[in-house]
Amino acid sequence: MTPAGLVWSAPAHYDHRGDRPCALCGRPTPLRSHAREPAHKVCAEQWAADHPGTDRFVSDPPAGRRRTHA
Ligand SMILES: [Zn+2]
Fold it and tell me: How far does the centroid of ligand 1 lie from the alpha carbon of residue 67, in Å?
């Protein structure tokens, strides 16, 4: 069993304004999903593993194909 590791290296995944309760476990986290949903990376990975075929939590595009949006 290999959990699908998410790649969240883009700075947009880190909210410098502070912690918010994780949408999945409720504990504070500075991390955000692509949809700006507060979530720990490990929680998002677990959720994605439990919900195959969904795109609530996805990895960053490979380097060189990064989307540039504020
Ligand atoms: Zn969490």
Answer: 25
